[in-house]
């Protein structure tokens, strides 16, 4: 199958600054829900068939051993029971009313989804759920401290008739390291919308971007989850040509390794605007210094390196 290697790449440098000047923060609101998160919705997956950063092509000249052994990619796999998937999908469908358009990376998305949805808020703070994600990533995780970016719902449709409003995810690296992409549409509901990724280290992306170095995920069903080490694996979503594709992106943070967080101010500002990011960035810098209270802050028993097995 021929893959879409000709998708645009996200803005960097001066273009990223200009994008930040045009960006707007998420709106305020609370979504009405008549259902609640329950810990039994989280299911444990084995940590087999993980592709490490070392296997992707990174070496000691890039990162130390402890980083190279972290997972670069896994999936698709399941993180929720069928009942949990159905409720998460319902919650995310309701959140489209809070979505905003963007020219940065994702065309249409709802940032800070856990601010609007109690179900999502409780899900990403549940220890059983977090432990599963931590085992996949090979690092103890909490929701990212930059809350606007921690939970984001993406909505994809076919192009407008004039072709000016493509709903895509450009080729990009995430500001976050530990990123889980949960598909919330079934293959019968849309065409196109493939999750694709570059099968090599980021410094080879521009020189080797061809079909031999690009792979597509076989995600086809509601709940199918892909994990990527987002700041080190280039990835994108091809245009949807029919129907509607929804996914939720969970961006996580390892409180024991604050020094490896890859976020930059301008990457976050590209999505949320400068003023909102100034406020959040200060809180983020402060929270990074408080690893010992990271799990207490989300009312969750700590996950340690020993818990990863």
UniProtKB/TrEMBL annotation:
Keywords carried by this UniProt record: Iron, Metal-binding, Oxidoreductase
Domain Fe2OG dioxygenase per the UniProt entry, residue ranges: 147-269
Leader peptide range in chain numbering: none
GO MF terms, alphabetically ordered: metal ion binding; oxidoreductase activity
Transmembrane segments: none
Source domain of life: Bacteria
Family: Belongs to the iron/ascorbate-dependent oxidoreductase family.
Name by which UniProt lists this protein: Fe2OG dioxygenase domain-containing protein
């Amino acid at each position: 199958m021929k893959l879409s290697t000709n998708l645009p790449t996200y803005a960097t440098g001066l273009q990223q600054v200009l994008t930040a000047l045009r960006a707007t923060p998420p709106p305020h609101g609370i979504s009405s829900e008549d259902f609640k998160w329950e810990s039994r919705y989280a299911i444990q997956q084995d940590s087999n068939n993980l592709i490490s950063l070392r296997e992707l092509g990174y070496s000691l000249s890039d990162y130390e051993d402890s980083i190279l052994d972290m997972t670069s990619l896994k999936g698709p796999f399941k993180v929720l029971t069928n009942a949990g998937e159905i409720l998460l999908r319902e919650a995310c469908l309701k959140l489209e009313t809070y979505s905003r358009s963007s020219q940065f990376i994702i065309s249409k998305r709802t940032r800070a989804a856990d601010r609007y949805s109690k179900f999502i808020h409780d899900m990403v703070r549940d220890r059983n759920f977090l432990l599963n994600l931590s085992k996949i990533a090979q690092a103890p995780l909490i929701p990212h401290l930059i809350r606007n970016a921690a939970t984001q719902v993406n909505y994809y449709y076919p192009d407008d008739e004039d072709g000016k409003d493509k709903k895509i995810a450009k080729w990009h690296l995430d500001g976050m390291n530990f990123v889980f992409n949960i598909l919330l549409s079934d293959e019968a509901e849309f065409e196109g919308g493939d999750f694709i990724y570059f099968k090599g280290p980021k410094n080879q992306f521009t020189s080797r971007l061809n079909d031999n170095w690009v792979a597509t995920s076989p995600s086809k069903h509601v709940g199918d989850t892909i994990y990527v080490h987002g700041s080190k694996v280039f990835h994108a979503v091809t245009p949807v040509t029919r129907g509607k594709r929804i996914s939720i992106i969970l961006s996580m943070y390892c409180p024991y390794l604050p020094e490896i967080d890859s976020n930059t101010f301008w990457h976050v500002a590209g999505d949320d605007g400068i003023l909102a990011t100034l406020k959040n960035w200060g809180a983020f810098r402060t929270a990074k210094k408080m690893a010992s209270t990271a799990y207490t802050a989300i009312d969750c028993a700590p996950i340690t390196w020993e818990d990863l097995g």
